[in-house]
Amino acid sequence: MKSAVENLNPTRVRLTVEVPFEELKPSLDAAYKKINQQVTVPGFRKGKIPARIIDQRFGRGAVLEEAVNEALPKFYTDAVNEGELNPLGQPEVDITELKDNELLTFTAEVDIRPAIEIPDYSGIEVTVDSVEVSDEDIDKSVEQLRERFATTSPVERAAADGDIVVIDLEAKVDGEVLEDGVATGVTYTIGSGELLDGIDEAVTGLEAGVEATFASELKGGSAQGKEAEVSVKVSEVKARELPELDDDFAQLASEFDTLEELRGDSRKRLEQSKKFEQATQAQEKVLDALLELVEVPVPEKLLQDEINTRKHNLEHHQLGQMGLNLDSYLEMQGKTAEEFDAELKEQAEKGIRTQFVLDELVNKEQLSVGQEELTEHLMRRAQSSGMSPDQFAQAVVEGGQVPMLVGEVARGKALAVVVEAAKVVDDKGETVDLDDEEDETGETVEATSETAEEPAEVEAEAVEAPAESEEKQDKAES
């Protein structure tokens, strides 16, 4: 077999392969054997039909076609290995010549990983936010904890902002009540923004037993996007009561005896959280700086496939779970379809470039992934997926995704190498030591084509009905 490689562009090649006919003989014998098992010829036992009879009855061309189809993958793979190529995706194969008993010639066009030259990255310098925890930050943290221990009690007065109301709803479009437009006994916190636009204004000032109407655009259901006339009737008004901020509250909500100890623990936790945020920011900025140093051509087909995958995952998985569609998501974001497509392309292209560069770094730095590292990564991924480690591991193995996980860990280690070599300072000019966050550094970058980036601004909202008097919870972390 002879093969030649023609570079069509930095990310695509054409292989021209010539195969002497004698190298087709094993596949030709296999083709005759396969056809022998599939056909019946009077006078011959099944599987014992001579080759010349098969040629006469079914045509030599059918046998050649079967043989070539069986042999092509091997010849293509041999040509790829001979050319030392890293193909991406499936090739486009064209049989250019097939002479019986003489020669088979075919071409195969395929995208390849571009050759990347990793420059000296030791001079990268980035600035990140400094770690500062103010008294206001601690106040907010403690107040959030205080909110979790609030109690409710019925009141005989008009509903006000922050109150909890139990309401019945009925939506009409063009004067007709919608089949899915009636709800009773809905618990809602005024001012939370978790239901329809306009409902806060409608129920504020209403007492139990009083009804009001308002107009609102429906966000879901059979009449999504349409303007509806909504009737709301308040059946109960409840006031939320917060516990006093004192030592008794500290003992109720935590393992600490005093409020001062609780605030001190809040400061410690907030500092740790901000350090992790600082490390993540450092990674992102170092990665951006590294990508600016490297020229990375991106295959057009691979880019389009990545865009399609991300869009599909967004529409059919992430948004679907939240009861949204793409149009409603774009409306929430205040974006046009063109702006969304442009952003998606930019994200997809960056993801591919990141993967190419970090994979090249893995090779350059000769990084390997140990079993313990892979297990730790698998545990993190299982936790984020909501599956048990055993379930997640089984799904990974059955789906043939182990190499993908290994790649994710290796790319994380490659980025950690670059971050370690970079100079990271905060906005006060102080050098930032990221050693304490080393484990996090190795796990935050997963530039794969398998998953889409989550829309950061989209959140699944749920209205939780507060208990009449919430029971004391387990010891809670501030």
Automatic annotation (TrEMBL):
<dbReference type="GO" id="GO:0051301">
    <property type="term" value="P:cell division"/>
</dbReference>
<dbReference type="GO" id="GO:0003755">
    <property type="term" value="F:peptidyl-prolyl cis-trans isomerase activity"/>
</dbReference>
<dbReference type="Pfam" id="PF05697">
    <property type="entry name" value="Trigger_N"/>
</dbReference>
<dbReference type="InterPro" id="IPR037041">
    <property type="entry name" value="Trigger_fac_C_sf"/>
</dbReference>
<feature type="domain" description="PPIase FKBP-type">
    <location>
        <begin position="162"/>
        <end position="209"/>
    </location>
</feature>
<keyword id="KW-0132">Cell division</keyword>
<dbReference type="GO" id="GO:0043335">
    <property type="term" value="P:protein unfolding"/>
</dbReference>
<keyword id="KW-0131">Cell cycle</keyword>
<dbReference type="InterPro" id="IPR046357">
    <property type="entry name" value="PPIase_dom_sf"/>
</dbReference>
<comment type="function">
    <text>Involved in protein export. Acts as a chaperone by maintaining the newly synthesized protein in an open conformation. Functions as a peptidyl-prolyl cis-trans isomerase.</text>
</comment>
<keyword id="KW-0697">Rotamase</keyword>
<dbReference type="GO" id="GO:0005737">
    <property type="term" value="C:cytoplasm"/>
</dbReference>
<dbReference type="Pfam" id="PF00254">
    <property type="entry name" value="FKBP_C"/>
</dbReference>
<dbReference type="GO" id="GO:0044183">
    <property type="term" value="F:protein folding chaperone"/>
</dbReference>
<dbReference type="Pfam" id="PF05698">
    <property type="entry name" value="Trigger_C"/>
</dbReference>
<feature type="compositionally biased region" description="Basic and acidic residues">
    <location>
        <begin position="469"/>
        <end position="478"/>
    </location>
</feature>
<comment type="similarity">
    <text>Belongs to the FKBP-type PPIase family. Tig subfamily.</text>
</comment>
<feature type="compositionally biased region" description="Acidic residues">
    <location>
        <begin position="451"/>
        <end position="462"/>
    </location>
</feature>
<dbReference type="GO" id="GO:0051083">
    <property type="term" value="P:'de novo' cotranslational protein folding"/>
</dbReference>
<dbReference type="InterPro" id="IPR027304">
    <property type="entry name" value="Trigger_fact/SurA_dom_sf"/>
</dbReference>
<dbReference type="InterPro" id="IPR008880">
    <property type="entry name" value="Trigger_fac_C"/>
</dbReference>
<keyword id="KW-0143">Chaperone</keyword>
<dbReference type="GO" id="GO:0043022">
    <property type="term" value="F:ribosome binding"/>
</dbReference>
<protein>
    <recommendedName>
        <fullName>Trigger factor</fullName>
        <ecNumber>5.2.1.8</ecNumber>
    </recommendedName>
</protein>
<dbReference type="InterPro" id="IPR008881">
    <property type="entry name" value="Trigger_fac_ribosome-bd_bac"/>
</dbReference>
<feature type="compositionally biased region" description="Acidic residues">
    <location>
        <begin position="432"/>
        <end position="443"/>
    </location>
</feature>
<dbReference type="InterPro" id="IPR001179">
    <property type="entry name" value="PPIase_FKBP_dom"/>
</dbReference>
<dbReference type="InterPro" id="IPR005215">
    <property type="entry name" value="Trig_fac"/>
</dbReference>
<dbReference type="InterPro" id="IPR036611">
    <property type="entry name" value="Trigger_fac_ribosome-bd_sf"/>
</dbReference>
<keyword id="KW-0963">Cytoplasm</keyword>
<keyword id="KW-0413">Isomerase</keyword>
<feature type="region of interest" description="Disordered">
    <location>
        <begin position="427"/>
        <end position="478"/>
    </location>
</feature>
<dbReference type="GO" id="GO:0015031">
    <property type="term" value="P:protein transport"/>
</dbReference>
